[in-house]
Design a protein that fits this description.
The chain is mostly helical and 361 residues long. It has helices at 40-50, 65-68, 75-92, 109-118, 123-127, 130-138, 145-159, 173-190, 236-244, 262-275, 279-286, 291-318, 320-349, 355-360, and strands spanning 27-32, 58-63, 100-103, 165-168, 198-201. Helix content is 51%, strand content 7%. 40% of the residues are buried.
Length: 361
Amino acid sequence: MSTTCPDRHSSIDGEDTVTKASPDRQVALSAAQPTGQLTIGNLFGAIQNWIPLQDHYDTLYCVVDLHALTVRQDPQQLRQRILELAAIYLAVGIDPERSVVFIQSQVHQHAELAWLLSTFAQLGELERMTQFKDKAQRHRLNVNAGLFTYPVLMAADILLYGTHVVPVGEDQKQHLELTRDIAIRFNNLYGPIFQVPEPMIQAQGAARVRDLQNPEKKMSKSAESELARVMILDDATTVLKKFKKAVTDSLGVIRFDEAGQAGVTNLLTLWCAATGNSREAALDHFSHHQYGKLKVETAEAVNAVLDPIRQRYRHFMEDPGELQRILDRGAGQAAIRAEKIMVRVMDALGLPVGLRGHRHG
């Protein structure tokens, strides 16, 4: 994949409409790592909620491939996964005509700003990051500096674009707090350079998708059993098979009860997420039926959501030229925005701006 520069890829077939931040909209940034296929937990719990942001925010969607390097990757597999994740972004409904879709490593300002911000992050702060502690336990043979400074790169990802809001789950809230602290610390010393971002907390009632074999846990692509997770790109037959084998209980009662009937509650939650129906509608529909019907109809509802996504995904993967053009344009758009922030940061710190200031002043 070639390095993208903003001068080469600022537009495709006409005037670029999203290179400049919209003055009347706040900026929202969303991102995911290309570390394998995504589950329906990722879809219903996060990515599906990104799509409506395009109607109300100036939106950027990033494939954060540099973050993936904190764990050893097979180069060929990583290249493929980067493109697959970008294709999934587009397949679920992210519109490159309204949003900036790009790959993190293709915008060099992410790494540049991360180094500068690392001088404003305190050692003790990074040591307190719970994700670092958890991952260091799981990857004891590769506890690298990148894993330790991961939150600083995440801060750079966010602060580069004047981001106002960031959709975050529970596992990233601590990192966003660090981002805010770094931005405030910098601004207190050098003036209002950075927009201090706010978390966009998952809406109440949004789907919390659980493991199909162990519903006490959240669904994860790293689960040992393939039956535990449904992937966005699973075919319809596989989806049905996994739901038919989903763990429930011996009570034979269909109701929402996370403590006593986690498996049944998970199926009901997924049916609601896939159909858009309320919990009350789910109970009206299933209350007098057996678990088998709940499993099959939930699988059918999920497949109805996944079918068009799978078709659009295949379209982009079968036309890599179009996909690459979209990503090249997005990288160019992102780089132009990022460079404006970099010039201000470097100037504030007393670093020579040189030709950067002439190009992007």
